[in-house]
Amino acid sequence: MKINKLLMIAALAVTVMGTAAGCGSSSDKNNNNANTGATNNAGTNAGTNAGTNAGNNAAGGGGSKAITIKAKNFEFDQPEIRVKQGDKVTITLNNAEGFHGFAIPDYNVDIKENNGTATFTADKAGEHEFHCSVVCGAGHSKMVGKIIVE
Asked: Where in this chain does the record put each Cytochrome oxidase subunit II copper A binding domain (predicted)?
């Protein structure tokens, strides 16, 4: 009976430590924004494109848009992103503080690696929620935003 209690306490302690470690510092601090071959990788992304939302947009869409999202505890640097319908959008996630993910469920985007990238075509007009896809601590539920496809 005492052994069962000890095992349960040990399992609970390991679970708590694992959850708390989710928002610990990123082990990739010296990466200099090089592509890590993340989910839906679309090529290389070298440089310092941090916190930008720039691209080549034609008036009717169909251009390309490169966006770098900086994540820190517990917010994204761009809570709102605007693109044109038809744009080819490449998003890079940069974990400036802690370890986070970036997901847009409506476009099947889920980046879980620091400096990982995902590319999709913004073919659905309207507002689409994005959120942190890695449980990162007490403020995790506040890490949300929206991408507006015009």
From this structure: 64-150
